[in-house]
């Protein structure tokens, strides 16, 4: 038998496994599609995704109006000067902007007296409130503001320098009675004034992070929860393949001969998977804390609740897979498909806000969106136990639903 015959035999086996073939090709296609839709506004030729940015305009002068017009020219920004409350449109305020920054990622405030300061050659300030979980959107706004400030500052410098030059020249002419003048001293004065204004531009922007109860968040505060959820899911769902392997090997049939109910056998398998998933998650967070200085938030109890609820939901999903898949290879393919798709869709790989609105809504049918959202509330925003009861409750409910269906659906033979 030649190597060609061996290859032919293996290929025949592969192509007879229709479910395996589907998952072989469907998994990468689905993940590529999800990623492409999610990042469509960032890369490629698709229309630029607009980010809704609250803008508080407390000044009615021309300089403030010019600043607003400059911002409106940025395709990526959808400026919100009004908000709706109790069915009525109201002018955006600082308090409302602070509230919206959590989801919108940044806000712009043009304070009262801005235009007067600009026209008077005094230092004027534009304020940018940014959400510490994101640097992309605030960065875009900073670039726009900086560009406008640069142009406006240059105009002001030219105005100030020109005014000073004319005043000095008129004074000199008056003193010298129209005698021939040496312009060198005046040029020196102009240069000195230019240095003063270029060293400290009349307009600047200042940034302020959205206030949180905890310390300043780090990169690990954002990344560890997302990837931890993904790997916990991968580990938990692999238990489905192990359970189906035991069914194929006849191990489960032997267990049924013991004085123990079928439900107890399944619950025992789930308990083992749940404990493993919980420990895995704890280890990942411990490494993040001890090795990389990750914040643990202001509520250890809340963190433990999120870990337990995430592990429970992941384990319930694993049992559900075991109940509906016929073979271990099928379970392996489906689990990879589901985990990668949920990770891409639910916020494990990138923030949910960069996805289209319709995808953000769909994302919340996945346990990854609820889990990463709960962890983010604790680690990044410094929220407490009460604030994560909703995501934890949803995860526990998912796990219970999955487990209930799995117990009713699973077959031991």
UniProtKB/TrEMBL annotation:
Pfam families noted in UniProt: ABC2_membrane_3
Protein name: ABC-2 type transport system permease protein
Topology of the protein relative to the lipid bilayer: Multi-pass membrane protein
Organism, as annotated: Croceifilum oryzae
Subcellular location: Cell membrane
PANTHER family named among the record's database cross-references: MEMBRANE COMPONENT OF ABC TRANSPORTER YHHJ-RELATED, TRANSPORT PERMEASE PROTEIN
GO MF term (any one): ABC-type transporter activity
Record-stated family: Belongs to the ABC-2 integral membrane protein family.
Keyword terms of this UniProt record: Cell membrane, Membrane, Transmembrane, Transmembrane helix, Transport
Any GO CC annotation of this UniProt entry: plasma membrane
Domain ABC transmembrane type-2: 187-413
């Amino acid at each position: 038998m030649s190597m060609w015959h061996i290859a032919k035999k293996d290929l025949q086996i592969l192509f007879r496994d229709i479910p395996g073939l589907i998952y072989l090709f469907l998994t990468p296609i689905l993940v590529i599609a999800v990623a492409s839709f999610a990042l469509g506004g960032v890369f490629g030729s698709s229309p630029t995704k607009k980010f809704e940015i609250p803008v508080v305009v407390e000044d009615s002068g021309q300089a403030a109006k010019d600043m607003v017009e400059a911002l409106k020219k940025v395709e990526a920004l959808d400026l919100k000067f009004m908000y709706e409350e109790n069915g009525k449109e109201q002018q955006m305020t600082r308090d409302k902007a602070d509230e919206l920054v959590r989801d919108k990622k940044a806000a712009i405030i043009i304070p009262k007296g801005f235009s007067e300061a600009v026209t008077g050659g005094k230092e004027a300030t534009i304020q940018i409130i940014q959400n510490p979980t994101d640097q992309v959107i605030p960065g875009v706004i900073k670039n726009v503001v900086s560009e406008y400030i640069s142009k406006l500052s240059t105009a002001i410098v030219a105005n100030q320098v020109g005014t000073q030059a004319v005043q000095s020249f008129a004074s000199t002419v008056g003193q010298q009675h129209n005698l021939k003048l040496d312009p060198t001293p005046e040029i020196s004065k102009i240069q000195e004034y230019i240095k003063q204004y270029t060293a400290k531009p009349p307009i600047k922007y200042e940034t302020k992070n959205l206030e949180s109860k905890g310390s300043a968040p780090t990169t690990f505060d954002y990344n560890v929860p997302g990837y931890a959820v993904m790997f916990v899911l991968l580990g938990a769902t692999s238990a489905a393949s192990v359970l189906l392997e035991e069914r194929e090997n006849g191990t489960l049939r032997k267990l049924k001969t013991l004085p123990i109910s079928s439900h107890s056998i399944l619950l025992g398998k789930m308990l083992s998977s749940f404990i493993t998933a919980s420990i895995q998650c704890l280890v990942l967070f411990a490494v993040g804390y001890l090795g990389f200085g990750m914040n643990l938030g202001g509520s250890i109890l809340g963190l433990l609740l999120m870990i337990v609820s995430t592990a429970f939901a992941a384990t319930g999903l694993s049992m559900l897979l075991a109940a509906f898949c016929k073979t271990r290879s099928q379970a392996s393919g489906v689990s990879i498909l589901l985990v990668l798709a949920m990770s891409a869709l639910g916020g494990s790989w990138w923030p949910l806000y960069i996805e289209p609105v319709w995808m953000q809504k769909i994302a919340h049918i996945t346990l990854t969106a609820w889990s990463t959202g709960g962890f983010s509330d604790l680690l990044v925003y410094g929220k407490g136990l009460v604030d994560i009861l909703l995501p934890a409750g949803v995860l526990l409910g998912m796990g219970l639903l999955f487990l209930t269906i799995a117990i009713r659906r699973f077959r031991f033979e």
